[in-house]
Amino acid sequence: MSCVRAVRGLAPVCGFQPLTVLSRGVSFSPRQVASDASFHSVSFSESDHPRVLITGGLGQLGVGLAKLLRKQFGKYNVILSDIRKPPAHVYQSGPFIYSDILDYKNLREIVVNNRISWLIHYSVLLSAVGEANVSLARDVNITGLHNILDITAEHGLRLFIPSTIGAFGPTSPRDPTPDLCIQRPRTIYGVSKVHAELMGEYYHHRYGLDFRCLRYPGIISADSQPGRGTTDYAVQIFHDAVKAGRFVCNLRPDTRLPMMFIDDCLRATLEVLEAPPETLGMRTYNISALSFTPEELVQEIRRHLPDLQVTYEIDPVRQAIADSWPMVLDDSSARSDWGWKHNYGLPELVQTMLNFTGSDSRKARAK
Ligand SMILES: NC(=O)C1=CN([C@@H]2O[C@H](COP(=O)(O)OP(=O)(O)OC[C@H]3O[C@@H](n4cnc5c(N)ncnc54)[C@H](O)[C@@H]3O)[C@@H](O)[C@H]2O)C=CC1
Ligand SMILES: CC(=O)[C@H](N)C(=O)O
After folding, report:
1. Domain coverage including residue 130
2. Three-state DSSP class for 3?
3. DSSP 3-state of 97
4. Of 340, 314, 320, nearest to 329 (Cα)?
5. Is 92's pLDDT higher than 70?
6. Atom 14 (ligand 1) nearest CA
7. Are 77 and 124 within one domain?
8. Is the same domain home to 248 and 142?
9. Model ipTM value
């Protein structure tokens, strides 16, 4: 068999065994530790809690995930990281550290010095932001991912990377979209997420990396701002409805997309991270809760705020992206393999969002 260079920066590997590879000057050999997919679960003893690092932790999802994991594993076992300065309440709530995922050495130092055993990789440029800055998106979403893969494989970590409905494209079946089908996304975000899915699975099969991945739908949260993606109209509408009584929607009223309330998303993440390896028939799963259009969301909000005024000013970039994404995700494998189940349907989601944004804006007015 001829020699192949496995990945950039790694020494050539002849054939498939023995798998001793050089990662940026340091040799590691997954096969010397164990050859099966579950060996990383013994990198910390069964009685210990995992030591978790969350990259890109100051975005829409990271702070909420840190809160959930700290409840489960202890405040000091979960470190948030980002390249931005944390707001005071985040800084005071538990460990925070600066980490640029493009800085391989710094990332590795953090993993080693803090004895990290699980890494949750949230750093990203989302869909519409990526289209506005393709070269930065390529750096963060692809080069950054390579750093994460090498470090987690080298140090025997469990690695969670979320994928997205954006990993599908116009030639994928859209209603419903199964786990395995054609994936030809048309955004740099989608392309980089397909790359992440495939690279994670490759490292899993080749080096035994304990890679776990969920394709999230659009996530709706009340107390954290979304990162300017395509599904984010469904968050902004609550703030504008409560504060101003009107909303300008940048997608067509009939644009159907899969969505999920943040509590369901974060719980799914913890559940798949804790799932025994033998229950994971796959390493990349669709997860889903509900699908709705702007029109249907507006109707449900009007049951609480009947005077809400909505106008439509379509953003062609976001609309083209949304038109290429799934309308409904088929998550039957997640449900049958590790028992995924969502709690929030549309009425519960709307009620919860209005309760939160309403009380938040009352607090702001009182100040
Ligand atoms: N929020 C959503 O609706 C969905 C999110 N996801 C995925 O979940 C993950 C988290 O998403 P969000 O929190 O919504 O993203 P976000 O855009 O709100 O936050 C991303 C974070 O990455 C950080 N970042 C950017 N460049 C970095 C770098 N060089 N080094 C370190 N950090 C860097 C940013 O400062 C930001 O805080 C992402 O991987 C995203 O693809 C997937 C589907 C839906
Ligand atoms: C669905 C996503 O991945 C994200 N919210 C975006 O709209 O870019």
Report:
1. 31-217+262-286
2. strand
3. strand
4. 340
5. yes
6. 60
7. yes
8. no
9. 0.99
**84 Cβ below 6 A of ligand 1:** yes
Number of domains in the chain: 2
Between CA 325 and CA 317 the distance in angstroms is: 13
Cα(259) to centroid of ligand 2, in Å?
Answer: 10
Digit-coded pLDDT (tens) for 326-360? 999 999 999 999 999 999 999 999 999 999 998 66
pLDDT digits (tens, 9 = 90+) for 253-266: 999 999 999 999 99
Determine contact, residues 135/18, Cβ cutoff 8 Å. Answer: no
Q: Is 55 in the pocket of ligand 1 (CB under 6 A)?
A: yes
Q: Which residues are marked as active site?
A: 189
State which ligand 2 atom lies nearest to the alpha carbon of 189: 8
In 59-186, which ranges are E strands?
Answer: 78-82, 96-98, 118-121, 158-164
Residue 115 φ/ψ region, left for φ over 0, alpha for ψ in the -120 to 50 degree band, beta for the rest: left
To test ligand 1's pocket by mutation, which of 53, 54, 55, 61 has the most ligand atoms within 8 angstroms of CB? Answer: 61
pLDDT 10s digits, 4-28: 334 434 433 333 333 444 455 444 5
CA 258 – CA 209 distance, rounded (Å)? 30
pTM over cut 0.80: yes
Determine, yes or no, domain membership for 5: no
